[in-house]
Write a structure and sequence with these properties.
The complex is a heterodimer. Chain A contains six helices and five strands, in the order ββαβββααααα. Chain A is an alpha+beta fold. Classes of the chains: A alpha+beta, B alpha+beta. The structure holds FE2/S2 (inorganic) cluster (FES) (2 copies).
Chain lengths: 154, 744
């Protein structure tokens, strides 16, 4: 079984029903995607498969047929993605445990919705739980990120 | 050996504190020294000038003993030291340090005493200093009670100043210059000739710590009171921060546990034949109350654990929720009376005149459910035990491991980890004790034990369920009598039992946030009744006040309306604490209190002093055809001084969202002795589409610096209930409120 994660191909021999999340975390040591609920309720495990935000806890590895991008593949501390820059500028994170998932969901959404309304942001992001209550800052960071992605002057 | 031989094994905090910045507090008179834990195992060329600062050739490390569960504790502790030490916050390393009595938290005990925080009487002040002494004697290294900033504000600045002055003295000795011609900046001692010496180059020198320091004036501050970039923000935004659950060591195996969801009921037996045969399973090990599965992958451990057939014992409490309510309900008796800290005027007589009102309020069990399920990494080599986990109670944890597993404290090494939330959950160490059981059965292997979300939700230590009975009277448009009786199991007794200690005296938590409010109601009584222990309970963000503020503010609002009074005006009239009055005035101004809101809308106010922070909140709602929409929340809080404005706002907002989310739709209920809510589908709290706009204002009129992690929680739920009443006429006296009204 082969899987491409952040541009690197890995060969695995695991049960096809093992969720992608646990392949990433325990088999490949990629720990940006987090375990929060395991049943697609919290979004902490969100990654992109072929550009679509996906809950890796609920996708069996046997069904992954396209390249996977995790938060580690989006940007790095010395090469930040625009969305990550906005997250840092707005000091969004509290415990931060949900934020990799929030950022992946936001990035996938903004790619398709470059000029989102508040309601669109709320609808897109309400599947991602944040127990610390960082929602107001996520909203603000998404607007900053959207403007930057559109190339608007700040 | 270039180690600083002349440093004695003492902390210099105690000796130096009394002379600095005019803080002649009683507790500094307690001079029995405490060992500086950094002096153990100090390498060549390393200096540990105070328990909070360690310097070697590679750089400066600031020890941040209060745990970081997302509240920014590491950043604020580092900033307090860095401000005086003159180091660039971006250039230092932080380390949570080892569990040690040197890192005692005096404030957390001081605030748990039966004196209102607004009480500045001699007895109250004396008891608070006594709390500080107790904290030191008992070595209470605890993160909680919004006490981190309050406890650290002077302590850590002094530590930074002592280190700075000591480094200057070393430089003076080296250069033959007088120390007072030297200055410091960004980790270097500056000489008058324009050259400089790095702190790191001074670390290997012999040094006697300076004992006289003066703290800097606020006008010279570089970091404090300005918005700081949190030291973990880039890592948290790039998936590169390692939480406890992310740790990985060579040869690590992955474990999970299943224990009886009838909490404390034990296990009669289990059949693990299928689990043992499952792919990747290394072993199935009995642990207290259940079994652990050790595998080569966490998911394989989860799956195998699901295959075990358990025969669970019965719970030591009534199995059904209705019976639990009956137990609490039957506790309003003389025999169960626990406290009556407030009894002003003649309440019984006052309740026979004017217009009277009575009501019963209820709040459910609520779990903490931090987003990172509980976990711990453990390794035991036959003598030495290593534990890597996020904890608010490292020192108690060592004691518990020693007591429960017979490993001597000297051989227990705990490395605190970043936590994906806690909200009080990691004031318990049950998950660690389980992991230690596994380690003892499987020595010489690093084991990462992770709970499934279902295990986490069904083995929480919730906030206690509570019932309040309230009566009151109004006359001539004013509240004349207020009588509140609260029944709950004792959180404190439950917690103390788990560290092997008895709990003495009344439990302040049963009435906190209700008995201690600065309102001059002429006839005013608050009585606590201790219900029998039911499920094990613990501190939930803002502890007793989280529920008692709902009773207190909800029923007060009922009386205000009965009297025909404006709630804010009546609160201002009754409030006899100047700092609190300013908070009430501020929130009134912020929310345009008194101006018309329009049809189907309502405003509610609530006010609570908790953890020494007077906080007033106004919630506005709209009653839409689909249900209640929470529009806006206004928060005014008195904290003495805001150390970091961005983090202040983040914590204040987070507290409001936490409180409103749980008030809307969360409860933990028991059936057949087990929690019925097993995952977030049944325990949602707030999601983004429901999140109101939150506006926060900090007031800085008071003398004491306070933390804001919890104080915005208590007033939020009652302000919401009062707003719903204003918009709809429906009085909600029970949480979660979605039992009575829909939310959109
Ligand atoms: S862990 Fe995947 S949605 Fe919660
Ligand atoms: S920042 Fe803690 S769960 Fe979102």
């Amino acid at each position: 079984m082969k899987i491409i994660v952040n541009g690197i191909e890995h060969t695995l021999s695991v049960e096809p029903e093992m969720p992608l999340l646990w392949v990433l975390r325990d088999e490949l040591g990629i720990t940006g995607p987090k375990y929060g609920c395991g049943i697609a309720q919290c979004g902490a495990c969100s990654v992109m498969i072929d550009g679509r935000a996906t809950r890796s806890c609920s996708v069996p590895i046997g069904q992954v047929d396209a390249p996977v991008t995790t938060i580690e593949g989006l940007g790095a501390p010395d090469a930040l993605h625009v969305v990550q820059e906005a997250w840092i500028a707005h000091q969004v994170a509290q415990c931060g445990y949900c934020q990799a998932g929030q950022i992946m969901a936001a990035t996938a959404f903004l790619a398709k919705t470059p000029d989102p309304t508040d309601d669109q942001i709320d609808a897109a992001m309400s599947a991602n739980l944040c127990r610390c209550g960082t929602y107001p800052r996520i909203r603000a960071a998404m607007k900053t990120a959207a403007a930057a992605l559109r190339g608007d002057a700040a | 050996m270039s180690r600083i031989g002349t440093i004695t094994r003492r902390t210099f905090m105690v000796g130096t504190a009394a002379i600095s910045g005019g803080i002649a507090l009683g507790f500094y008179a307690y001079k029995e020294p405490i060992d500086n834990p950094l002096l153990d195992g100090l390498g060549a060329g390393e200096a540990a000038i105070t328990p909070y600062v360690k310097i070697d050739q590679n750089g400066v490390t600031i020890i941040t003993p209060r745990a970081d569960s997302g509240q920014g504790a590491y950043s604020v502790q580092a900033a307090l030291v860095a401000e005086e030490l003159d180091v660039d916050l971006g250039a230092i390393t932080i380390d949570p340090g080892v569990p040690s009595a040197a890192y005692f938290n005096g404030k957390v005990i001081a605030e748990g005493l039966p004196f209102a925080s607004t009480d500045m009487g001699t007895l109250a002040k004396g008891a608070r200093s006594m709390g500080q002494v107790l904290g030191k004697i008992m070595g209470v290294q605890v993160t909680g009670g919004s006490s981190t900033v309050a406890d650290a504000y002077e302590k850590l600045r002094i530590a930074g100043a002592v280190a700075r002055e000591t480094l200057k003295q070393v430089a003076a000795d080296k250069t033959g210059l007088a120390a007072d011609v030297l200055r410091t900046q960004d980790g270097r001692v500056l000489l008058p000739d324009g050259t400089s010496i790095a702190y790191t180059a001074l670390a290997a020198s012999k040094v006697e710590p300076i004992s006289k320091v003066t703290l800097r004036d606020q006008s010279d501050w570089r970091y404090l009171t300005k918005s700081m970039q949190r030291i973990d923000m880039v890592q948290k935004s790039t998936g590169t921060l390692t939480y406890g659950i992310d740790l990985r060591f060579d040869g690590m195996v992955f474990a999970t546990v299943r224990t009886n969801p009838r909490l404390g009921g034990g296990v009669r037996g289990f059949d693990a034949i299928d689990a043992r045969a499952a792919r990747g399973v290394i072993d199935v090990i009995p642990v207290t109350g259940g079994a652990a599965v050790v595998a080569d992958n966490t998911w394989r451990a989860f799956r195998a654990a699901d295959m075990i057939e358990f025969d669970w014992g019965d719970a030591p409490y009534p199995h059904e929720q209705a019976d639990m309510w009956d137990t609490v309900s039957q506790s309003f008796t003389k025999a169960h009376q626990d406290s009556q800290f407030k009894d002003t005027g003649d309440v019984d007589a006052a309740l026979t005149t004017g217009e009277t009102l009575s009501a019963e309020y209820r709040i459910p069990y609520l779990g903490h459910a931090p987003l990172e399920p509980l976990n711990a990494v453990v390794k035991y080599d036959g003598t030495r035990l290593d534990v890597w986990t996020g904890t608010q109670i490292p020192l108690f944890m060592v004691g518990n491991i020693e007591r429960l597993h017979g490993i001597s404290a000297d051989n227990i090494h705990i490395q605190n980890q970043y936590m994906g939330g806690s909200f009080g959950r990691r004031l318990e160490d049950d998950y660690v004790q389980q992991a230690v059981e596994i380690a003892l059965s499987m020595p010489n292997v690093p084991i990462k034990m992770t709970w499934s979300r279902e295990e986490d939700m069904t083995h929480d230590f919730p906030r206690p369920m509570q019932i309040a009975r309230a009566s009151g009277a109004v006359e001539n448009g004013a509240v004349t009598a207020f009588d509140l009786a609260i029944a709950a199991a004792s959180t404190t007794a439950s917690q103390m039992s788990r560290i092997g200690q008895p709990a003495f005296g009344p439990d302040v938590a049963i009435v906190a946030g209700a008995w201690d409010q600065p309102l001059a109601i002429p006839n005013y009584r608050v009585t606590g009744y201790r219900a029998p222990a039911l499920v094990p309970v613990s501190s939930w963000r803002s502890v007793g006040a989280s529920g008692n503020a709902f009773f207190h503010n909800g029923f007060l609002d009922e009386l205000f309306h009965k009297a025909g009074a404006d709630p804010l005006e009546e609160l201002l009239r009754l409030c006899d604490h100047d700092l609190s009055r300013k908070v009430l005035q501020a929130v009134g101004e912020m929310s345009d209190w008194g101006t018309p809101l329009g049809a189907n809308r309502g405003r509610g106010i609530a006010f609570t002093v908790a953890f020494g922070v007077p906080t007033a909140e106004v919630v506005t709602v709209t009653n839409t055809p689909q249900g209640i929409k929470i529009d806006e929340v206004f928060v005014a809080a008195e904290v003495g001084k805001v150390i970091d404005p961005v983090n202040f706002q983040n914590q204040a907002e987070g507290g409001v969202i936490w409180a409103l989310g749980h008030a809307m739709n969360c409860e933990v209920t028991f059936a057949d002795g087990m929690a019925e809510q097993t995952n977030f589908h049944a325990y949602e709290a707030m999601r983004m589409y429901q999140t109101p706009k939150v506006t926060v204002r900090a007031l800085e009129n008071g003398p004491d610096v306070r933390g804001i992690g919890e104080p915005t929680v208590p007033p939020a739920a009652p302000a919401l209930a009062n707003a719903i009443y204003a918009a709809t006429g429906l009085r909600i006296r029970e949480m979660p409120m979605n039992k009575h009204i829909d939310f959109v």
